[in-house]
Amino acid sequence: MSRNLDPPEMMVITDEYRRFAEFCDACRRYAYIGLCYGPPGVGKTISARHYANWNEIEAYVPYLAASGPGPIALLGSDTVFYTPKIVHSPKQIEQELAQWRLRLRTIPLEVLHEEEETSLERAKELDNPKRLALDRAYAKRAKGPLVPLPEIEWVSEQVARTYAQKRAQTPDPTTLLIIDEADRLKTAGLEQVRDIFDQGDVGVALIGMPGIEKRLSRYPQLYSRVGFVHEFRPLTTDAMRELFEHRWLPAGVALPNGLNDEEVMAAVIRITGGNFRLLHRLLTQMARLVEINALSQITREVVETARENLVIGVV
Q: Is residue 269 part of a domain?
């Protein structure tokens, strides 16, 4: 599946995202459980949602043409992104993951359904002369001796059999389950995830806070299945400059002339320290100051004032 479909907020592919994607690819390819951990705000969730193309999957409603992206655009989707509720049960985890996997399975089935409908329309046109011949044969039987009816091979029946076989042969497309906020999983929830993993040829990527790898090591039945561990790190200075070069801004945020000034960029990088969530909040606050004060350019003073309006701890 292509990993280039951006969510509504423009996604810039950084080196950190590439490392995360390689981690997910490995979990999928080898059908292992992988652990991804990192401090809050570094972009774990947005990267996972982008990897799974989850904004598009969530917007898709099966067999409803006006539900957003059509099934053809989503064909090849193979990753489920799931966040367990704060209060959950193993049964709930099993059911919700099954529902999302069914959503992915419905995509190729709906594509087949649309193809079948088109093929059936053509088949009915080919069958029409045969239907007329059959009607004439019935009319002759009604008026005279019982003559044998013609043997007819209906094209529409052949089409229906062909697509029934295709549906039966369509495999479960899910090859990776990404479970965000995995710190929420209690012992029973972890056991449920392990059971789902053991049932099928599917990889699992658990995403959580630093320390989740030590906590899971206390559950040998699950931890023995862990094949990869990935630390999601804050953005580097070069990565943040790459964002600015791509004129990345949070959705709905507008800044005059972007962030081209070297002094402004240095201040933003110093204040946020590579924390993606803090960068998002700081830029949003800067845009608010620009709008309130009708500013025509961004200065270091604007950045510092925006920082003072945020609760960001010690920097």
A: yes
d(CA 221, CA 280): 39
pLDDT digit string (tens) for 121-163?
A: 999 999 888 888 887 777 777 777 666 666 788 899 999 999 9
pLDDT at position 312, please? 56
The rounded distance, in Å, linking the Cα atoms of 64 and 304 is: 49
Dihedral sign, CA of 83, 88, 94, 100?
negative
Helix (H) or strand (E) holding 231: strand 226-231
Question: In whole angstroms, how large is the CA radius of gyration of the chain?
Answer: 28
Containing structural domain, residue 206:
19-109+169-231
The rounded mean pLDDT for the chain is 87
CB 93 within 8 A of CB 192: yes
Instruction: Specify the pTM.
Output: 0.84
Same domain, 283 and 301: yes
Match 């809050």 to its residue by tokens: 40
Helix or strand (DSSP H, E) at 58: helix 54-59
